[in-house]
Amino acid sequence: MKQDRAIRTAKDLVAAGLLDAARRDEAEAVAKQYAIAITPTVAGLIERDDPNDPIARQFVPDIAELSVTPEERADPIGDLAHSPVEGIVHRYPDRVLLKAVHVCPVYCRFCFRREMVGPEGLGTLAPEAMDAAISYIAAHPEIWEVILTGGDPLVLSARRLAEMMVRLKDIAHVKIVRFHSRVPVVEPERVDDKLVAALKASGKTTYVALHANHPRELTPAARAAAGRLVDAGVVMLSQSVLLRGINDDPAVLAELMRGFVEMRVKPYYLHHPDLAPGTAHFRLSIAEGQALVKSLRGRVSGLCQPTYVLDIPGGYGKAPIAASNVEATGDDSYAVSDWQGGVHQYPPAGSY
Ligand code: SF4
């Protein structure tokens, strides 16, 4: 049965058949700390009979979320250390994050900003704070790209998005506006003509980075929503998080990346999971991640290869962490490994 509204409580999870009634108290305890939201589309994707369903694992709360390990931290990627004014994160010289809103259509159980998002989170930027954030961007000519994230900026109305784009349009040095969103997958009907038009502004190139982690999320409706964006001239990229029990399998990753490419969404980042509180059950080791990423090399086209990255805890930015295929062997020579594990010598410069 298709839900007609988002599920937001443990009681609703039980009523929808997504949670065993015996686990309701546990889910209520988790919900006191971290918000729950599951859209009707996502609820419809969950296989109720599968206790390890990879969609359920992403959105249905688990008591393991209340076990915090010593290395986990409330602000795992160090946003706050780089926030000169409310709503702005300026970590790299040529780009800023603009966090206009801290609500999402779904709440991912592994969210890296889980302490900031949700109804009890940092909320939506007040008009004065938005003015200050826009003024900050206007006053920094080195800012070439503005990345709208949060929260999920596509929960804002088309009118509010269009207003924001008009304000950015007037800042000549901003050339790229990028939206990070799960909406085309979890609430595809939201991506209508009005919303698509609102994301565009003359003189700016609009990107949408789509967050999805399992190929079952790439439904016909999600593909159609992405199609509406791409047909309108929006460039689309993917972002996925490598998650234990969800996509830590070469075949699943390959199908996910191929699905993106079929949708005209270029695989961009595969994130190693961040040290967000209560998410240890999702994390694999970097060595496991490297092996999975290596397995994609020969398995799928170069178009389907994302960059495997780690946000270095503490706010030091992203680092690509895939295992290297090249090793210096002295005298400016190198040993280069191919996708089947063969190793080949490459000669020093000037010797060929
Ligand atoms: S959509 Fe993004 S910001 Fe929102 S809960 Fe999921 S990971 Fe966090």
TrEMBL record:
The lineage of its organism: Bacteria, Pseudomonadati, Pseudomonadota, Alphaproteobacteria, Hyphomicrobiales. PROSITE patterns: RADICAL_SAM. Signal peptide: none annotated. Its cofactor is [4Fe-4S] cluster; pyridoxal 5'-phosphate. Residues 90-299 form the Radical SAM core domain. Pfam families: Radical_SAM (PF04055). GO terms for molecular function: 4 iron, 4 sulfur cluster binding; isomerase activity; metal ion binding. The modification N6-(pyridoxal phosphate)lysine is found at residue 318. Keywords: 4Fe-4S, Iron, Iron-sulfur, Isomerase, Metal-binding, Pyridoxal phosphate, S-adenosyl-L-methionine. This is Lysine 2,3-aminomutase. [4Fe-4S] cluster binds at residues 104, 108, 111. CDD domains: Radical_SAM (cd01335). It comes from Devosia insulae DS-56. NCBIfam families: AblA_like_2 (TIGR03822), KamA family radical SAM protein (TIGR00238). Belongs to the radical SAM superfamily. KamA family.
